[in-house]
Amino acid sequence: MAAFTFGEVDEVYAKVDNLKQFQFSDEHDNLVPATVEDTSIATLTFKNGVMGTWIITSAAPGRRISYNSYHGSRGSIYGGSGTYPQAPQLQLWNDAITEPDELQRMYMESLSEEEKGQLFPHGITEGVTIEVYDFIRAVAQRTRPELDGLKAQTICEAIYESSLYLRDFSDFWIFKS
């Protein structure tokens, strides 16, 4: 979703770990350690200069940590909890806050009718429905979808690689394809 919103990623720095060290019982009641991560923290810098953090964990007691926050030179957008920002809020450096409904209204007013038709085919405004429409259109017309899933997957791969090698990835081979 971040690549869809902000364009291509330029740099990734991340830490991914299994902090809770959860164990589960196998069919013989032997404790088996989980081998999947329970915490991911990533800083993404996009080619257009937008920088964002992506944090998710199930290892912290109490509330789970999971939110979207994107920062630019004039302010930030906080997207709330969950995988997809449901009600993004814009806050500028002067502390002015634009609530989700107003932000959406301003955005829609900034678009021409042609742009609205391209971005919201048949008046569809719900994100996942647009993704499904684009997929069906690509299959039916034998064309590529707007976003290439493999290219988007490179961000996930870079997050794991950054964590594994304890370094940022800005000149990473998968960003060049």
Please sum up the structure shown.
This protein is an alpha+beta fold. It is 31% helix and 28% strand.
Explain this structure to me?
The protein has a single domain (2-169), classed as 2-Layer Sandwich (Dihydrodipicolinate Reductase, domain 2), CATH 3.30.360. It has 5 helices and 9 strands. The two termini are 19 Å apart. The radius of gyration is 19 Å and the shape is globular. The longest helix is centred in the last third of the chain and has 17 residues, at 149-165. It has helices spanning 2-6, 100-110, 113-119, 127-141, 149-165, and strands at residues 9-17, 23-25, 31-33, 39-46, 51-57, 65-71, 75-81, 89-92, 97-98. Strands 1-4-5-6-7-8-9 form a 7-stranded antiparallel sheet. It has a two-stranded antiparallel sheet with strand order 2-3. It is 31% helix and 28% strand. Strand 2 (23-25) and strand 3 (31-33) form a beta hairpin. The mean pLDDT is 85. The protein has 177 residues and is of the alpha+beta class.
